[in-house]
Amino acid sequence: SDVYKRQVSTQSTGSLSTAMFGSLTTFLLATLALVAAQPPSERSQDTACTIRIRAAGSEPLAVYFVGNQTLANSGDLEPDFEKLVQVLEPGEAMEHTTMFHHSFVVRSGSHQFRAKISAWKNAKDQGSDRWPYKLMFRNIMAESPHKPIELKHSTNGYLWIEPEQEVWHKTDVRHEFTLRDQNKKPKVSVTLGHYAKDEL
User: Which pLDDT does position 75 carry in this prediction?
Assistant: First the structure.
């Protein structure tokens, strides 16, 4: 499958109170955060998919919905917009319907790991019959010393994502991607699935 990187500008990320990690164990604004941007009657397999995010490491993982990436790139979305979706305990996963172009930021309980993830529909001329979706993974950790992220995209496929870079990957349904920190410790796993109207 095809993978490519490109350099992007830095976006600020909001702060997260560490106190919430010990107290929040249930869904917070989950359905509203992921699907409020478009009425259910307008969602279909042409406009939406499911996204499953799992805390793959040994610490909690906060998941934020940060809006439409296309609108953010064009300056039509408030740059500081974010909604807390859920705080996942180690090994816990969430799965919800999301619109294409929507982005999520994940932050570990220690704040030492942070990444942005976006779901997209793949184009027909790029093999959508085989890979109906695309995932974007962005390393949003800009501090020094630098912290590359390792993406495990197949059984034997690995690549590094440098700070302030993003990687795009075509994908089929239920193909798991895992992001690891600079020490190759798993932090988050992501899979996409087909939208089904009766899931909501």
Answer: 83
pLDDT for 100-137, tens place per residue?
A: 999 999 999 999 999 999 999 998 888 888 999 999 99
Phi-psi domain of 69 (left: phi exceeds 0; alpha: psi -120 through 50; beta: other): alpha
CA distance 171 to 169: 6
**Mean pLDDT score of the chain, rounded to an integer?**
81
Question: pTM of the predicted model, to two decimals?
Answer: 0.76
* Strand ordering across the sheet containing 102-108: 3-7, 165-171, 133-139, 114-121, 102-108, 61-68, 83-88
